[in-house]
Amino acid sequence: MKRDTAKDGPLAGLKVIDCATVFAGPLSAMVLGDFGADVIKIEHPDGDALRKMGAAKDGHGLWWKVTGRNKRAIVLDLHDADGKDVFKALVKDADVLIENFRTGTLERWGLGWDLLSEINPRLVMLRVTGFGQTGPYKHRAGFGTIAEAFSGFAHVTGEASGPPTLPPFGLADGVAAYHGVFAIMFAIYERDVQGSGKGQYIDLSLYEPLFSLLGAQASTYDQIGVIQNRTGNRSVNNAPRNAYQTKDGRWVALSAAAPSITRRVLELTGGKEVAEDPRFATNMGRVKHVEEVDGIVGGWIGRHTLTEVLDAFDKAEAAIGPVYDVAQILDDPQYQARESVTTIADNDLGPLRMQNVFPRLSRTPGRIKYGGPRIGEHSQDVLQEMVRSGKIDAALGERVLVWAKQKTKG
Question: What is the CATH number of domain 241-327?
Answer without folding.
Answer: 3.30.1540.10
